[in-house]
Amino acid sequence: MSMNIFRLAGDMSHVFSIIVLLLRLRVVKNAAGISVRTHELFLLVFVTRYLDLFTTFYSLYNSCMKILYICSTSLVIYTIKFKEPIASTYDRAQDSFLHWKFAVAPAFGIAVITELFQHGFSIGPLDLLWTFSIYLEAIAILPQLIVLQRYREVENLTGNYVFFMGAYRFLYILNWIYRSYHEPYYQHHFVVYFCGVLQTLLYVDFFYYYFKSKGKGGKFTLPTAR
């Protein structure tokens, strides 16, 4: 994958979101408003997508970023679930989205159907897992958005963390547009485009209230779910 300003900005936004979250856990020392299930989904996304770490070397930058995503996401999960006093503040009752049933299973099923449609029964396991990771990433943020909706009042660093996660995906859409215009042999992946746009749309409501709160300088509060 070639580098451009939008891809670099997207990667840095993703890294910054992780830094903000780890900083928030370290400073506030509680996990209120944070979804472990979202991070479990993202960890599964990274592990299944980056299996090419063992088969193909693209660049030092590429390899380091993949390892960073896997390790940092694992650290977030470990910190919230097992490191005290943070672990005792994690509210499992609020983070109750059935992610294995309503995210992992459907994403895998759709990935199998997609691969069968494209390649018949000669499905490569790495290709199947890569496609699965694309579908799963599109909805991985759902448990986190549901938790925020239940808490309603969003702590500042938590809001910034989710904002940078959304910005990362939006910047990657700009990266795809840029590459399609400037790379003559750029290969289009319409499944990736669809899932990227879907993931970005999930953030729209959050973005609206995030910028509204920043403009007014008040507390960031989400409306009550109807």
TrEMBL record:
GO:BP terms for this protein? protein retention in ER lumen; protein transport; vesicle-mediated transport
Quote the protein name from its UniProt record. ER lumen protein-retaining receptor
Q: Where in the cell is it found?
A: Endoplasmic reticulum membrane
Q: What is its main location?
A: endoplasmic reticulum
Q: Which UniProt keywords apply?
A: Endoplasmic reticulum, ER-Golgi transport, Membrane, Protein transport, Receptor, Transmembrane, Transmembrane helix, Transport
Keyword match DNA repair: no
Source species: Chaetoceros tenuissimus
Q: Which residues cross the membrane?
A: 57-78, 98-117, 129-148, 160-178, 190-211
Q: Which PANTHER family match?
A: ER LUMEN PROTEIN RETAINING RECEPTOR (PTHR10585)
Q: Which Pfam families does the entry link to?
A: ER_lumen_recept
GO MF annotation list: ER retention sequence binding
Q: Which domain of life is it from?
A: Eukaryota
Regarding the membrane, this protein is recorded as: Multi-pass membrane protein
Q: Which GO terms describe its cellular component?
A: endoplasmic reticulum membrane
Q: Which family does it belong to?
A: Belongs to the ERD2 family.
